[in-house]
Amino acid sequence: MRKKRCIDLLTITCALFCLNTWAKDNAVILLYHHVSHATPTVTSVSPVTFRQHMQYLADNHQVLPLKDVIDALQNKQPLPDKTVVITFDDGYENIFTNAHPIIQEFSFPYTVFVNPPLIGNMASQLDWHQVTQMAAEGATFANHGKQHQHMLDTNAEESQQEWLDRVTDDIQAAEKMLAQHIGYSLKYLAFPYGEFDKSLKLHLRSLGYIGFAQHSGAIASFSDFSALPRFPAAGAYSEMNSLRVKLSSLSMPVNGVVPDEPKIRLPFSDKQLRLTVNSTDLIPRQINCFQNGQTLSKTINGKTIYVDISPITQPGRHRINCTAPSLGEKDRFYWFSQPFFAPTAAGEWLD
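Above: the chain sequence. Below: its structure as tokens.
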């Protein structure tokens, strides 16, 4: 019988403390879509590269189930240092054929966010037999909506409340269908395309959902559990040297973020991003923020950082990433990301 790498979270934590090592209020969630040579490059990683990622995790990190990590952080319980979670979006069949056998070799847990009505009804998707087998072998499944659609898209003459009710009904129906097939309901939702607005995430939080997005960063007990960041690990983001830094990143403790509404209209009129940082393990003046690969200018007033945002004039998904070196942890960086989502002039959302 193969040696299990993932054991009970409490056992892992106790063992770490017994060895006089220490745990952190921190974890990193990785996001994959396709593991294949034959799918879009931007959302794909080859099986060879995926195996390299898994081997690196086995050698340097502790991979834990998503639910264990979320429960620990919400209850302010310690996690092993360099904890990582593996997730997939969209429920593609190549997760079963290409990714699952590799993950099994390492006995890693992982989570797949699926659109339940698509399972077994599209050639590119998993079927329920595969889902059942994967679940028996260490995978968990969670909600990605009924259809893979832009949740921010509104129908003609639809009011804000009508839109919110429609999207909520879609999510609740998907959750019910998923629970009927797999026997449990996590109430975890990965936003399709990573898109959400403030009203949607707050409403879902009131219904007991935890949201997962696609902007970058680590997570901690102080994170926004209605829109948790995940690091994409495919396409241009699959390169190992860059991924190593992200896997060791720390969640930047920020509050008072302005603007805090990610849904924007073009041209974006706000000129500054404001955030207050509460940590003695970083120096505010060492925080650098980036937009489209360019370093943004900033001013500092105590613990508050004012970042000058470059004009956003194009529709699509945008983000401001801010990083700062840890004073106590060599070669580790704090990371914060603020997403912005902009429709076209016609009100359409880009894939």
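The longest strand covers residues 316-325.
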